[in-house]
Amino acid sequence: MEWLTGIVVLLPLIASAVPVAASIRWKNIGWPFAAATLLATFGLAVWLAYLVVTDGPISHDLAGIDMPHGIELFADELSVLVLLLTLIVCLGVLVYTRVGGPRGNAFYGGFLLLTGGMLGITLTADLFNLYVFLEIMALSSYALVSAAKYRWSTYAAFKYLLVGTVGAGFYLFGVALALAATGTLNMQDLSVRLAEVGYTDPVVIAAFGMMAAGLAIKIALFPVHTWLADAHASAPDGISAVISALVPAVAVYAFARIIYTVFTVDFIQTNPDVGTMLLLVGLLSLFAGSTFAILQDHIKLVLAYSTVSQFGIVLIGLSIANETAIFGAIFQMFGHGIVKASLFLLAGMIALRFGGIRHIEEYGGLAKQAPVMAGAFAVLAVAMIGLPPTFGFVGKWYIALGAFEEGMWYVSLLVLGSTLLSAAYILPFVNRIYFYSFDGTDADPERITRGMMLAIVAGAILGIVLGFTSGEIHTLLEGAIDALLEA
Fold it and tell me: How do residues 333-352 score in pLDDT, each as one tens digit?
């Protein structure tokens, strides 16, 4: 069944052309076709995940050309977890855009292309094809950011394009250096060849540095995060959910593969300064992102800078490089994807219903007008802060515990202490919602569909339930994490 890996990636990529072509005759086919395509892809992804869990990792050589000469797709427990996260969030976004917009066949064609690019990043085992899928994801996201009705979105998309192109250039230059040093692009083969060249070789170190710099831009780590705020504030709400919850998630997944599958733990141990630099960037992103979020009063900007902070936590877990911290990073990434996407969609729903409100002072008294939406916001906020028993607490706990196991008790304190900063930027909104009077108008309650409500309630429930299922998820991922550390 190894062909499933190819079908999961190719189905949305090929299908993305259909809504655009169909515009000649059918103007409103985009949403139902995209929904059917992603539901079918999700079903195939669940089947693939079942096969991986029961039978072990699956490798597929495209066109029957064996690696390292051909192009390999690879699925293990970690990759199918990111695969399912991507499709769950994308389906939730589709539920929102049916009424919340933007609509149009071209938009949904771009959305399928974006989804296919993210799925390709998750399943590829080839550094150059990783670049190809990164660019498919990036180019489609640039276009979708500009799909908003605001003229400012064109500027934001252009800035996103410029910065993203720089990131792609850094990454590709790193790939070229790795190819020049080893003669191969396959991740597994590279891990062997790089060890033969030597981890202290300047070309090997430069290759890692270039790829790391490029992916840091894609993840939006401090200080190369500047594109994120403009893109989030200007993009349609559904696309903000994707570029905050998923685009950094698949980029950090790719970074984890490069660190552990390609360069391996031995590279980090041989070059301890590299690990220190990763840790430092993670800590700076954590505290800079939280500080910028505290200074904002626009909900989308608060959530955007929160993403910088949250992926700083994830990078801290990856830089610690032991099984406990890596699991915490993966768990934090997965839970963040669900909760952050739900918060962006909920912010869009509030704007739809109450006349486009976005600022904290406009959120006063919403609990009396929309109790379910207010309750979902409160639960999602608690999960984002990281209070027990939510995913945020469990993810931070594992990362802090992993740091403590390595003797880095100060990192443990900083990670756990970041909960206070998270509370400082999200609790003011909860306070306004519940403890202030309502001054606005309930402009358009009929625009909030049952599907939207189910999506955000499901996201809020998952934010809590994931905390109780961390043991089972840890057992599921244990083999994949061990394989990363032993590569």
Answer: 999 999 999 999 999 999 88
Please, how many CA atoms are within 13 Å of residue 131, restricted to the half-sphere of its CB?
21
Residues 6+ apart with CB under 8 A from 469: none
**Residue 233 has what pLDDT?**
74
Give exposure, 38-72, as e/b (b: 16+ Cβ within 10 Å).
beebbebbeebbebbeeeebbebbeeeeebbeebb
CB 177, CB 210: distance < 8 Å: yes
Q: State whether the Cα torsion 111-114-119-120 is positive or negative.
A: positive
Q: Who contacts 378 (Cβ-Cβ below 8 Å, separation ≥6)?
A: 430, 433, 434
Give the model's pLDDT for residue 150.
Answer: 67
What's the CA gap between 143 and 145, in Å, rounded?
A: 6
Which one is predicted more confidently, 237 or 453? 453
Mean pLDDT of 155-162: 81
**H-run or E-run covering 174:** helix 152-182
Tokens of 32: 């139902």
- pLDDT at res. 423: 92
| CB 71, CB 77: distance < 8 Å | no
Res 21: pLDDT? 84
3-state secondary structure 103-117: CCHHHHHHHHHHHHH
Cα separation of 157 and 147, whole Å? Answer: 9
Distance between CA atoms of 350 and 334, rounded to whole angstroms?
A: 25
Tokens 């934001």 — which residue? 156
pTM of the model: 0.94
* Other CB atoms within 10 A of residue 427 CB: 14
pLDDT of residue 12: 94
CB 39 within 8 A of CB 91: yes
Please report, rounded to a whole number, the percentage of residues in the chain having pLDDT higher than 90. Answer: 53
Domain boundaries defined on the chain:
284-487
Separation of alpha carbons 173 and 127, rounded Å: 11
Asked whether residue 119 carries a pLDDT value surpassing 70, the answer given is yes
